[in-house]
Amino acid sequence: MKPIPSAQGRKISWQNYKSGVKDIYFRMEAERGYASISIDLAHSDLELQELFFDHFKALKKLLENSTGEEWDWTLHTQNTNGQTISRISKRIEGVNVMEEETWPQIISFLKPRIIALDEFWDNVKPGFEDF
C-alpha cells in the first residue's frame, strides 16, 4: 500500500491512518478468524459520541457509494479495552493472519476499503472538524 497516495495525492501511512479529528479512528484488524475495518467513535462523552454517530448516519449513502456496500452500524458497544465506543464496520470471517495462504484474501478485503474510506473522509471531514 505504501506507493498508493491518499485521496489528496499525499504520502500516507495506511496502517496508521489518522483521521485528523479527535476521537475518530479508522481501524484495520487482521486476527485469527476474521479481518475487519471500522470507523471507531471514541469520545468519552456518550452524548457527543452519539451526535458524531448520527452525523455519520446522515452521510450513510455517501459512505455506501464510496465503498460500494453496506456497513454495520453499532451505537455504544464495548471495544477490547472495555471503552464504550460507537462503530461503523465491515468484517469477513474465515481468514487467519497467522496463515499466509489467507493473506491475499485479507489484503483484498482491507485495501479497497481503506482507500474508499480515505476518499469518503476527504469529502466529509470538514463537517466533523467543528465538533
Q: How does this model look, in words?
A:
The protein has 131 residues and is α+β, with helices and mostly antiparallel strands. The protein has one domain. 33% of the residues lie in helices and 28% in strands. It is built from three helices and four strands, in the order ββααββα. The chain has a four-stranded antiparallel β-sheet. It is globular and about 45 Å long. The chain starts with 23 loop residues before the first strand and ends in a 7-residue tail after the last helix. The model has no long low-confidence stretch (mean pLDDT 90).
Structure characteristics:
single chain, four-stranded antiparallel beta sheet
Topology readout:
Layout lengths: L23 E7 L1 E10 L4 H13 L1 H8 L4 E7 L5 E13 L6 H22 L7
Helix pairs in contact: 2-3
Q: What form results from the Cα inertia axes?
A: globular
Low-confidence parts lasting 5 or more residues at pLDDT below 50?
none
How would you spell out the order of helices and strands?
EEHHEEH
Specify Rg, calculated over alpha carbons. 15 Å
Report on the biggest sheet.
Answer: 4 strands, antiparallel
Work out the strand percent.
Answer: 25-35%
Report the strand count: 4
* Residues in helices, as a percent range: 25-40%
Tally of individual domains: 1
Distance between the termini: 31 Å
Side by side, the strands of the main sheet go 1-2-4-3
Number of helices: 3
Round the mean pLDDT to the nearest integer and report it: 90
What structural class results from the helix and strand content? alpha+beta
Question: What does this entry show, briefly?
Answer:
This protein has 3 helices and 4 strands, in the order ββααββα. By secondary structure, the protein is of the alpha+beta class.
